[in-house]
Amino acid sequence: MRIAQISPLSEAVPPRFYGGTERVVSYLTEELVEMGHEVTLFASGDSCTSATLEALWPRALRLDPGVRDVVALHTLLLEHVSRRAGDFDVLHFHLDYLPFPLFARQATPFVTTLHGRLDLAELQTVYAAFPELPLVSISDAQRRPLRQQNWAATIYHGLPENLLRPVPGVVPSYLAFLGRISPEKGPDRAIRIARRCGIPLKMAAKVDRVDQDYFDTVIRPMLAEGGAEMIGEIGESQKAEFLSGAHALLTPIDWPEPFGMVMIEAMACGTPVIACNRGSVPEIVEDGVNGFIVEDETGAVAAVERLDRIDRRTVRQHFEARFTARRMAQDYLDVYRDLVLTGQPRLRVVG
């Protein structure tokens, strides 16, 4: 099958550090190539792929200080894809609603995976204008604000099976926080939970400019009080040791998390997840099996005390059964084939 993967230009594919969407695009692209499909990746020029790379800008926009209008470059990307649309059996967009006006009026089948939150009021009118376009959600929880849309499937993210594994001989000695420092991710709650448990917290996280004030006024003073260490943003090669060394990954979120890649990264390393009951969490975490689902900080403290009930080998097995990139690619191929054969996805009912 001739497949086009169209990624945001904000980060390289895969990104050097943080960048959930672009990492998923990379894992999916590489699996599809390995399965024998002819894949073209539309992405920034510093991307690395075994597919055919169509570079629309020399480097990731986040790393290019000379770029001030990212919408202009994504408009150029869409126009370029539209001129080549006839070369493919199916187009797979990862750009939210941006492709809709142009690609709703061309013949090549296409599907869009939505990677972000959908409960924002301004999105309702945009998606209502394109009710027929096929969409993929990354959790059932994500799609609830837009139940009326033409949902092709819910397809959970996946990691290459051997990308992250438990590191032999590493003895867990701390609690972990991984990802991004922002109020909705709950790093302040993670620090308080670790302190109440009397266990050190290590925080491998980035600070975006939009969250710098929150970090400076809330998190930095908490770090100065001790009990938590900010080690900064880490790359893929560092995650296995970081997560293997943790008693658990703390995910005390306070927002409707669409998926949460850090949770399956921890599971790949055999590390249990303690997460607040928000968004996708009940779909990812099986309470008492690969972690615990909690309602608040007190519940998280109690969950830490029950971690000895979790078998880390079972956590890894749960990852292998549900969250590999190969399973993700196979699920997407089902959607692509439906689109190519009928022009519409086979609708899949979810709760």
Automatic annotation (TrEMBL):
Q: Does the keyword Oxidoreductase apply?
A: no
Glycosyltransferase subfamily 4-like N-terminal domain residues: 18-126
Query: Where, by residue number, does the polypeptide cross the bilayer?
Result: none
For this protein, the record's Gene3D superfamilies field holds: Glycogen Phosphorylase B
> Where is each Glycosyl transferase family domain found?
174-309
**Keywords assigned:** Transferase
- Please name the InterPro entries in this protein's record: Glyco_trans_1, Glyco_trans_4-like_N
What terms describe the molecular function in GO for this protein? Answer: glycosyltransferase activity
Signal peptide positions (record):
none
Q: Could you name the domain of life of the organism this protein comes from?
A: Bacteria
Pfam families (alphabetical): Glyco_transf_4, Glycos_transf_1
The family database entries (PANTHER family) matched by this protein are listed as: BLL5217 PROTEIN (PTHR12526:SF595), GLYCOSYLTRANSFERASE (PTHR12526)
What is the recorded name of this protein?
Glycosyltransferase family 4 protein
Top-level taxonomy: Bacteria, Pseudomonadati, Pseudomonadota, Alphaproteobacteria, Acetobacterales
